[in-house]
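Review session, final week

We close the course with one last complete record, chosen because it touches almost every idea we covered. It is ADP-ribosylation factor-like protein 6, a protein from Phaedon cochleariae with 120 residues. Go through it on your own first, then we will talk.
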Amino acid sequence: MSGHGRYRDLWEHYYKDCNGIIFVIDSSDRLRLVVVKEELDLLIQHPEICNRKLPILFFANKMDSKEALSSVKIASGLGLDKIMDKPWHISASNALTGEGLQEGVEWLTQQIREMIMTKT
């Protein structure tokens, strides 16, 4: 679902039934990273999310750009080291070429598979 402001209010309608979360980040937009962190913090504190071990995949898009932040800087900027109760992964990606997309989806699929297997 889009991260555009007018759509964010719709996100919580999907929290109850979701098995994983994908954030697509423009890794070349340093200012926008602050907004992403705010939205991520709100999301992981939501009652439908906070007590679940949902995997979070971050696609760091536009990694081919000269201005792109590294995965380490993105993790630091988002405070991912403080997320201890949910598996997370940053996949460097380029939406135009598809680079990094398969790797990210495979990681998320494996995490969801493990989550479902441990429930049964």
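Two points worth writing down before the exam:
Residues 93 and 100 are 4 Å apart (CA to CA).
The chain has a mean pLDDT of 89.
Good luck, everyone.
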